[in-house]
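In line with agreed milestones, work has continued on tokenised descriptions of protein folds. One protein thus recorded appears below exactly as we store it:

>
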Amino acid sequence: MRPGGAQAAALASSPSAAGETPADGRAGAPIVRLAGVGKRFANGVTALAGLDLTVRQGEFLSLLGPSGCGKSTALRIIAGLADPSSGTVEWSRDTGGGVPGAHDIGFVFQEPTLMPWATVFANVWLPLRLKGVSRHSARDDVMGALALVGLDRFADAYPRELSGGMKMRVSIARALVTRPRILLMDEPFAALDEITRQRLNDDLLAIKVRLGTTVVFVTHSVFESAYLSTRIVVMAARPGRLLETIDVTAPLPRGQDFRMSALYHEACEETSRALQAAIVTAGDSHL
């Protein structure tokens, strides 16, 4: 399925801006825009209604909101894993005809979803293998992706031999092996302990800066969104729509100094207030 399905359209952007990807998280030219997107499922549930969202090159954008507000649905629509019921998904022209290829998008799910019978190398090789790239030809790319997540020494290991955090690192390496233009992440660290989660947050920001990849990240955590993001979109309760946008201006990457800073705590407070408003909206919608 092509991203955006039949609703996909072209989003104009200047040729000069299209090639620039700010490494520190500053927003560049638009990559994709959801314009008035709605999603109604066959069971009658309306997950999204009139969602307007623009993702820009180089930013780290987090989607935050109450459970069931359509965060993951919006991510799947961007990825082309679901079609909108209404509205349009508009891609910048430099993706090639207005529609990105499979190599332009990497997706990390809530669970690592690794093949248990395959080695770490084979799991990361999978996206390239599906494109017809031989194991020999893919070796440098696979080992490079594993090096990015600190697992190049575990290429011959099997998933059963890895911790939960290491499995998620393999999943991230698999998503990055094609060097996607945009990385979509659906609560990838939710099941991990706090220490592992913080370490992976730090490593993810370092990788993002090194590659210049644009990231769209779904989370339920105010603290995680404030630490990782250059921009936080707080979504209203179902049907999901944009409630508030919060900019976090500290440059990337970040570390413990940022976690202790006034700017971080202000971002957490502002985000928490917006999330509380979304929760109140959720309560009102059930009266």
